[in-house]
Specification:
disordered N terminus, 124 residues, 39% helix, alpha+beta, 5 strands, elongated, Arc Repressor Mutant, subunit A, homodimer
């Protein structure tokens, strides 16, 4: 059993994919629950090694990678696995075991939701 | 004298505004220096109270606010000031003193740069 909560940034929309939890930061002040959710995700990317690993997965051929593909960031493989787990817990990566290896994939809808949070209003 | 370094996410481009430091996370693996720069900014938004304050400034009338305008997030005014200072050090806010109050303003080019980092590739 795990204490870690999956990040509910995105809500299912009846088979139509997902919708972001929060409006752009510039639209109105965020509520406390919205900020809790979004801050968890920004925090997950707030570490240089995690950010490099996330980028390595996101830019890898086919949009997925196993630990064996992305171990060149200068930290040990257990450390790589630890950071990938954190990214997964934050909802930024999904994973799937195939044979010996666990493959990680970026959750595109979460990236899109974060991008929308940072969207600027159209010029007046 | 201060130990705090201004975040060099954006580089001047000869009076033509600024350009982002880093390509989209999905384009290629980030280098270590790029990740250091970008992680500092994500980390600054990785706290719920800071994120609410940032959103309060970003969404305030005229795109700027003083501490007097945004003290309703349930923390003391010194705490508000502390978090605004952190956001300023990360390059996300600029500030200007006018009379009694310091006014904070979102740096739009930094938001745009963060948004670009999170941009997804065009569908194939």
């Amino acid at each position: 059993m795990s204490n870690v909560q999956e990040l509910p940034l995105l809500e299912p929309t009846g088979g139509q994919g997902v919708v972001p939890c929060c409006p752009p930061l510039t639209e109105r002040p965020m509520s406390a629950p919205e900020a809790e959710t979004a801050a968890r995700m920004f925090k997950a990317l707030g570490d240089p090694v995690r950010l490099r690993l996330f980028s390595a997965v996101a830019s890898h051929e086919g949009g997925e990678a196993c630990v064996c593909d992305i171990s060149d960031v200068g930290v040990s493989q257990p450390t790589v696995s630890h950071h990938l787990k954190k990214l997964k817990e934050a909802g930024l990566l999904t994973s799937e075991r195939r044979g010996t290896w666990v493959y990680y994939r970026v959750e595109p809808s979460v990236l899109a939701a974060m991008g929308q949070l940072l969207a600027m209003p159209a010029a007046a």
